[in-house]
Specification:
Layout: H1 2-5, H2 19-30, E1 35-38, H3 52-60, E2 65-68
Parallel strand pairs: 1-2
Helix pairs in contact: 2-3
């Protein structure tokens, strides 16, 4: 509703599957310019500072990734 109120074009989609792989596949198919993600850090050592999904995307993304704390 906030995006619509500001006139910002957007789409909502729901996918199933392993999160990082789905984000990667979608970014490749849609040829996105950038992936924007938040941090979480809830599990495993690699995810202490950055969430594990964000950590994986940072390593496999086909485009720049902006991580917001």
């Amino acid at each position: 509703q906030m995006l619509e109120a500001e006139g910002i074009a957007h789409e909502t989609r729901i996918f199933g599957g392993p999160t990082a792989e789905v984000i990667f596949d979608t970014a490749e198919v849609e040829k996105v310019d950038m992936i924007v993600m938040g941090t979480r850090g809830k599990s495993e050592l690699s995810g202490l500072l950055v969430g594990s999904v964000t950590h994986k995307i940072l390593h496999i993304a086909p485009c720049p990734v902006l991580v917001i704390r």
